[in-house]
Amino acid sequence: MTIDQFNFAGKKAFVRVDFNVPLDENFNITDDTRMRAALPTLKKILADGGSLIIGSHLGRPKGVADKFSLKHILKHLNELLGIEVQFANDCMGEEAAVKAAALQPGEALLLENLRFYAEEEGKPRGLAEDATDEEKAAAKKAVKESQKEFTKKLASYADCYVNDAFGTAHRAHASTALIAKYFDKDHKMFG
Q: Is 106:49 a contact under the CB 8 Å cutoff?
């Protein structure tokens, strides 16, 4: 299935984009190429009468960190799309679920940085440098287990899935590879 064949009317689309854009010390975007590259996909969904749930990462955070917050790109995203994009301060929080459920056709929601959660990458965090192999294995097993719920929750926000994050499509992360398993072949596609 391609996005050109799919009619997004009345559908909520979880779109994984790569908005990992460079920011200066004042959080100004210094190169918005990646954001502009996603516009054809995002605008197609909106033009069809669909709604957007936009997921991305920014940087390589090891937990919640303001400097990696996607709120810094929200104003520019509003300008590029020509609409007021809503923002969820936590991609897993109640706010995200409520805002996603309430989206109307032509509306968009940007989720906070997916990598604020270890489950996005599926790698354990906070292990002691001298952790034993057994401790490392247990931590990896635990994060892989919690990754299933993380992925399931992201998928629950939407009716269909679009991967437009070509810079990260090769990674087996929750929002790039694992989430696709929650949608049938007619409801998952590339941007």
A: yes
Could you tell me the domains of the chain?
12-190 (3.40.50.1260)
Tens place of pLDDT for every residue, the chain, 191 residues?
889 999 999 999 999 999 999 999 999 999 999 999 999 999 999 999 999 999 999 999 999 999 999 999 999 999 999 999 999 999 999 999 999 999 999 999 999 999 999 999 999 998 898 999 999 999 999 999 999 999 999 999 999 999 999 877 667 799 998 999 999 999 999 99
- CB contact at 8 A, 189 and 2: yes
Q: Smallest Cα–Cα separation from 55: which of 14, 11, 20? A: 14
